[in-house]
Design a protein that fits this description.
- The protein is an alpha+beta fold.
- It folds into three domains: 158 residues; 74 residues; 141 residues, Heat Shock Protein 90 (2-Layer Sandwich), CATH 3.30.565.10.
- Helix 5 packs across helix 6.
- Pfam families: HATPase_c.
- It is found in: Membrane.
- It is an enzyme of class 2 (transferase).
- InterPro entries: HAMP_dom, HATPase_C_sf, HATPase_dom, His_kinase_dom, HisK_dim/P_dom, HisK_dim/P_sf, PhoQ/CarS-like_HATPase, Sig_transdc_His_kin-like_C.
Length: 445
């Protein structure tokens, strides 16, 4: 099942069906129990009316009212569905039967203790279901105490019919509610998933070449996805541009050493030395251009601890330039992390710090701060600095390694291209220490 819309719809249908089935079961049981409770209350009320209407003689004989005087008219009508009889325990044979019970056989009675009530569901010979209430009481006269059991019997068919009607109405209502809920849910899902469908359309447009990035306005949750997709698309375009530029620069850079080899008039020994020098030079050029083309620019790489990486690079450069006795002050926040490929960050900081060590007189200062949505790394040195007229040239695409300005210019074109791949900035200025200031800006996201 690859359709998210279908998954959500089926899940919603399942949840609604389970919920409505549970609701129907609870309401059905509640209605049935409520109906039986109401029936019990009614039966108990009729028992109390019969007790009130009955009398007992001094000899202990129970006198019941005439059929026309019965408190419940149903008890006087044959087969009315309401029946009553009285027994004198421990004998279970009835000593009085209501006129409504005359056509029917008296059900087998069960003895009930004085003051107690007993309920029972039973089926009689006619095949119908009945509800039987037994109530025990006693009367005291001069001749003694006489216990009696009053019984009231009624058919369950009326409340079963009511339950059947209630169930029909209940299920009809729930079915209507289910259809309404599913209709609304379907519309809500289509509305909720519309941004994803729109993203799919924009991706198709990008694939067809009619668009270059996702430009629509999307909810926050989807926007995080579209922003990442746009970053990946931009990185892919930048990577392709770097490869094209690297190939162009490589071809341009190899012209001079190849021309030297082709036009040389040296002796055998001189030719051997020239070939070695130019081959070494071409190897450096090839490595340089591959390095520039290989900058990954991955903005979704794991976060890198900047301060720790700087300390590692500084420790290595201190060994290389130990004779200069450079003092490095690192004020980078230990908690600072950048989402950048570690190899790219090593290439960036390695080039910049190598230039700083090479041209610094005595000290280098590293610092960091946040500026809007950017994290800024600053490297100051007290060297001779870089002339303003040289800054643009050393950062131009196409400057070959062997033709870069000596000192700070070496490697900065590579640094600029890598930072550009991360939508960052490289700025070069004058340091407060009197030398060069290299400012690296990285997008915090």
């Amino acid at each position: 099942m690859n359709s998210l819309y279908l998954r959500l719809n089926l899940t919603a249908i399942l949840v609604i069906c389970v919920f409505l089935a549970a609701t129907a079961t609870v309401l059905d049981n509640a209605y049935w129990e409520g109906s039986k409770l109401a029936l019990r209350e009614r039966m108990l009320g009729m028992i109390y009316q019969l007790l009130t209407a009955s009398q007992i003689t001094e000899q202990g004989q129970l006198l019941m009212p005439l059929p026309t005087d019965l408190p419940a008219p149903q008890l006087a009508l044959p087969k009315s569905g309401w029946y009553a009889f009285v027994s004198h325990p421990p004998d279970t044979q009835p000593i009085w039967r209501s006129p409504s019970l005359i056509p029917l056989a008296t059900p087998e009675a069960f003895p009930v203790s004085v003051g107690e009530k007993h309920w029972q569901e039973l089926h009689l010979a006619d095949g119908k279901a009945y509800y039987l209430l037994g109530f025990g009481f006693q009367r005291t006269v001069k001749s003694g105490i006489y216990p009696f059991n009053f019984y009231l019997l009624t058919e369950l068919a009326p409340i079963e019919n009511d339950l059947r009607v209630f169930r029909q109405q209940l299920w009809s209502g729930l079915a209507g509610a289910a259809i309404l809920l599913l209709t609304v849910q379907t519309w809500l899902m289509r509305w909720g998933l519309r941004p994803l469908r729109q993203v799919g359309k924009e991706l198709s447009a990008i694939e067809d070449g009619t668009a270059t990035q996702i430009t629509g306005y999307y909810p926050y949750e989807v926007k995080k996805l579209t922003d990442r997709i746009n970053i990946l698309l931009e990185q892919e375009r930048a990577r392709q541009t770097r490869y094209r530029n690297a190939l162009a620069d490589l071809a341009h850079s190899l012209k001079t050493p190849l021309a030297v080899l082709l036009t040389g008039n040296e002796t055998h020994e001189e030719l051997t030395q020239t070939v070695h020098e130019q081959a070494t030079r071409m190897l450096r050029i090839v490595e340089r251009q591959l390095q520039r083309a290989g900058a990954s620019g991955s903005a979704i790489a794991p976060p890198v601890a900047v301060a720790q990486l700087c300390e590692r690079i500084i420790a290595s450069l201190n060994k290389v330039y130990r004779w200069k006795n450079i003092h490095v002050h690192c004020h980078i926040d230990p908690a600072l992390h950048l989402r950048i490929d570690e190899a790219d960050l090593i290439e960036i900081l390695g080039n910049v710090l190598d230039n700083a060590f090479k041209w610094s007189q005595s000290q280098i200062v590293l610092s960091s701060h946040k500026h809007g949505s950017f994290v800024v790394l600053k490297i100051d040195d007290d060297g001779p600095g870089i002339l303003k007229e040289d800054i643009h040239r050393i950062l131009m695409r196409g400057v070959r390694a062997d033709e870069s300005t000596p000192g700070h210019g070496i490697g900065l074109s590579v640094v600029a291209e890598i930072i550009d791949a991360y939508q960052g900035e490289l700025n070069i200025g004058v340091s407060e220490l009197g030398g060069a200031l290299v400012e690296l800006k990285f997008n915090e996201g």
